Amino acid sequence: MNLAAPRASVAVAGGSARLGLTLDLPYPAELAGAARQLQHYVGERVAELTGMKVSEVTVTIEHLVPASGGERRRVQ
User: Which of the two ends of the chain, N or C, has the fewest CB atoms closer than 10 A to its terminal CB?
Assistant: First the structure.
């Protein structure tokens, strides 16, 4: 599996931060659940490490990467 390095952005205003994450996920994956977990974890960690309120964490899934190393499977 060849996942690209995740990218992050932040906008800070009035003591709170809005975060953006762009990343690849392995396929198959439960996308909604994975995105929610990332939002929650990253928001809490950034708040804990910086002392800032995190008002928003946006997750963008850029690619789904086959977990089996790229081999293609076909429905028969």
Answer: C
